[in-house]
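Quick start: read one record
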Amino acid sequence: MRLANKATRAPARLIEQTLHCIKAPPPGWRQHRLLASNSIVAMTPSSLIERMAAAGLRPLQLAGRQLLPIVQGGMGVGISAHRLAGSVAALGAWGTIASVDLRRHHADLMARSEKLRDGDEKKAVIVQANQEALSREIRQARAIASGRGLVAVNVMRAVSDYTASVRTALEEGADALVVGAGLPLDLPELAQDHPETALIPILSDARGVSLLWRKWERRQRIPSAIVIEHPAHAAGHLGAARVDDLGDARFDFETVLPAVRRHLRDAGVEGRVPLIAAGGVRRCEDIQRLQSLGADAAQLGTAFVATEECDAHPNFKQVLAEASDEDLVEFTSVAGLPARAVLTPWLRKYLKAEERLQAVAQLKQRCTMAFDCLAQCGLRDGLKGWGQFCIDQRLAAALRGEVTKGLFFRGRGELPFGQQIASVGQLLERLLTPGIPPGTPA
């Protein structure tokens, strides 16, 4: 475990928030978020294209579309669902639905398993409910987008329903599939009947790109684009083997982007496979720099949480907006991957007990939630050195805005509008406008 500077003491603002803002969701909060059209005012796709051109930025060419060079990354559980992804796409950019446990946005689907006892039947009901939820979210996002932009689905390779979620996304006509948290070596086979769907892996270094490329070429398919995520800056699960590896120079964009470009040139596909740089992007100048290094677009996650259209509870947005780099902590998740999150009360308590919990980890513990969300789980499988908590339970608490109980993933860097919650349109406009420092209110 490694803590960020000064993370050993609780930030005063987080303590204050813990005492004063733990509330039940306001009446109709989910229903209110369905009214996406009210949030897309001021900015239009054409006005944003003009700003992009004025900033000297190149558009992203993908899946037969010309897009703004801005990608909204997938964030689960339920943080980037249909409203956020659809709203981003409606303005000509790339929006992403995170597939994990989306039933939590649908009361009728949650009710199906509430009275069932733990066991195979309950697990099957939950899995089916999540696939139905994913179908609903894709349809609703596409309705908001109205044919503009691009609607993608992010699926973690590490989750147990990876295959089911990939198939659901393909059948529902998602424009793209983005897969991280493991190498999706079998994705070309799963998508062989959907040649029109863009397949996009998330990787962190040139070695990983080379390995996946060789495997996919044998299956007669190459990536439609590649997301290059820098683990030293991104949020959530990170593309490094250990926490101590997060700052390794091999992940630097100055190293990875030119190396991958050379690989594409040697493969004879230069200019045909866009590169998306993810991690630490907070202003227009960051996108300009990344394009100068060979990226075609930049991906952001945390900045999109702090928008009106984000599908999370308002408390979730404020926790991320008010946190600074000094409030972040890096640790090993139950998925066995390094992760970065805000040091909120629950996470502080867990990290104090982590060493003791890992010391008594035993093989083949039963899943306490009757939902084996991960293919391998440190808690369920008793894997020493891995996290020892239920990640689905903690992420769901965060989605509901329960600051004392939730796990709040966040990337490094001050947000474009500081602690202010803005609209998706305002965020896209800001990211396409040079000369405005991060933290400047709208």
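Residues 1-12, 14-41 have pLDDT under 50 and may be disordered.
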